[in-house]
Design a protein that fits this description.
Elements (H helix, E strand, L loop, with lengths): L4 E9 L2 E6 L4 E3 L5 E6 L31 H9 L14 E9 L2 E8 L5 H6 L3 E8 L1 H15 L7 H7 L7 H4 L1 H11 L9 E2 L5 E2 L1 H4 L9 E3 L7 E10 L2 E6 L2 E6 L7 E4 L11 E3 L18
Parallel strand pairs: 10-13
Antiparallel strand pairs: 1-2, 1-14, 2-3, 4-11, 4-14, 5-6, 5-7, 7-8, 7-9, 10-15, 11-12, 12-13
Length: 298
Amino acid sequence: MAQVWKCSGLQWSDVGPVLVWDGGRRSALAPGKRVAFGVADGGGRTCTGARGYPCPARVTVSGRSTGARCEECGRLDRAHSVAADTLADDPRPYRVYLAWFGPGLVKVGITGAHRGSARLLEQGAVSFSRLGVGPLMAARRTEELLRAALKVPDRIPYADKRAVRSELPGTAAERAVEVRELHARAVALDGWPESLTREPCRPVDHADVFGLAGLPAAVGEVSGLVAGGAVSGALVAAAGPDLHLDTGRGVVVLDTRLMRGWELVPGGGADGELGFPVREFGGGAGGGGAGGVQDGLF
């Protein structure tokens, strides 16, 4: 019987994107790497739990859910998140940032200062700049100020991010234009909390980190994993949780959050195989495998 692996998700490290597996094993994802895996016939997807604890009921969750949690575990996870404003007494500093994902797609957000650029990499921000640093609730009030005064959203749908990745401006300076303009408008606003220190606009560009230069347009995205399905393709680019994979149907986007909660088996079939449902854009997705002794699924 083939060894099975459970994916904990994709993380960004100093060496780039890394898939993490239950038990702590890690698989680095370099450009061109073959990503191939399948779901065994009869396999199912169970809730991944919350806050580092397994789901006590092992509830079955939808193959299309990026959250991979049941209702109760999802509620527990949100209750201890920064977004839920339940950490008001957190003494650590937080940063307010502006993140750009493509023309017209700029958002404001906050992240722990100790996390550096990790949060921006996780979201797939192509260009970003910090706005200010201070206590959590001061950072939250600044975020609200930008939303109210400048109509800057705090969320950009992943579908919108994916739609423009192959059509971005060619230079880092061009990709930073909207961030610079919005930063200037933001720091000129009245009403900033006194405890938040404003920071100069210093755009950071992730296009090379993500491998977006010359990225082919994707033909679609995997809409969910299914029992008996498999995928095999070469990694073209990785941005946020997304892998852009060159398959037999062209480049398809696989959101690695869809992999969590499944028992995955190494390998797919032939190179280019795509046996998971795909939502067509009009115009690629995948995993990775090996046999014998492995340091990860692929």
